[in-house]
Design goal:
By secondary structure, this protein is of the alpha+beta class. The protein has 17 helices and 14 strands. Helix 14 runs antiparallel to helix 15. It is elongated. Bound molecules: adenosine-5'-triphosphate (ATP). Adenosine-5'-triphosphate binds next to helix 7 and helix 14. This is AAA+ ATPase domain-containing protein.
Length: 454
Amino acid sequence: MEILSQVWSFLGLLTVLQNILPTQLLSLLHSLWQSLHDSLTPYSHFDVPEFTSSLLSNPLYRHVSIHLTSLLHHHPHHLHPHLSLSLPPNSSSLSLSLSPNHSFPDLFLGHSLLWTHHVDTLPDSLEERRSFSLRLPKRLPLPLLPAYLSHVSASAAHFERNSRDRLLFTNNTASAWASVPFRHPSTFDTLALEPSLKGEILSDLARFVEGSEMYRRIGRPWKRGYLLYGPPGSGKSSLIAAIANHLKYDVYDLELTKVLDNSELRSLLLQTTNRVTLSGLLNFTDGLWSCCGEERIVVFTTNYKDGIDPALLRPGRMDVHVRLGTCGTHALRVMARNYLGEEAIEAEHVRRALEVAEGCVSAGGALTPAEVGEVLMRNGGDAGEAMKALIKALQASILGGEGGSLSSSSDGSWDGLPREREGEGKGREKRRSWERRVKFLVRLRSLAKCDSGR
Ligand SMILES: Nc1ncnc2c1ncn2[C@@H]1O[C@H](COP(=O)(O)OP(=O)(O)OP(=O)(O)O)[C@@H](O)[C@H]1O
């Protein structure tokens, strides 16, 4: 009680002093107190305001905010009692952020740092001034600060890319993209692909994604062209979706039949960051326009590779050719597991039926993954019945009934480099017959791009 009454008297004295002392003297006393405090404290403080002094938004504020959100998500054991929950517009998952005027620790190269989120309401206004302040030990080597801030920005970019919902853009209207959330469930885990093909595609994608420096060094735009070819239902769209999900890219699905001319095509492509002629497309895929926007995978799909002009097939435009066909034995097993369930295919009678089905494939039974999926779905309730129906369908395809149109491709194959040139002669005559469907996978990349409104 005695201490409380002394504190009360002290506060009263302060109020009296505040009223009788001139403002200049008060502010001098305040700055003296601040200097004394700064020299005694073992910490330095850095403010990161939401807006710069020229009222431009400060990208670093946003990076810090996202970095802290990522720390909160990844270290639930550090959960702070004062967190704000929100549902961001482009995401279906809840976002955690640090509540105003609370702090959260971070660790960098063994050094403990502390972020505090400040929110002050401006006097006589409803406006809020927000900032983060970073508390660092004074003994911390100064060069560590830029390194730490780069780490914060990289962590924010990584978190944002991985947590936001991705979009599927289509050119519904003449020269603009329309988008819907991209929620295709296909992944490399669910995709029934022969393991060697899957492995080759995944390593190629990994090399591409990590190749920024290499592409810059050799002076090539950071892009890669894929050609997926195979009969309807062989999994071209599913593979594109799996690639997009794997790399967290947005998908731009360009229907060329809706594009009137080259300038419209260019306008659409520039927004990503036929009377459309072949030269317009060539120009984009390997020409000047291909430099617009970074880190881009262009996927061409067709049912007939022979119908594609050789000028489009060459490396630099379609770097990797992937043939997708009917189900091989491995793909068949993966589909049976996905559709019927791990447990069901372990049952003795289903296991035997699966072996018979694999035998049918080896003997020339050719069904596309779409056809296999349909048979398994129709009889999904009963795994034994489903396998019987599958064997029947495979046998029918051997007898020439329902097989896929690429009977030779019982498994997917990777053309790799150098390119096949066999279609070169015929290709020119069939120039107009290539399928007018191109898919663009474009990573909505850096925070800087969002900030500059591009
Ligand atoms: N490799 C696969 N693994 C698992 N399911 C697949 C696979 N390929 C195709 N499917 C199934 O078949 C359906 C059709 O496949 P998809 O649309 O990818 O084929 P497509 O080759 O793009 O066909 P189209 O040429 O007609 O556009 C998909 O919805 C998917 O369920």
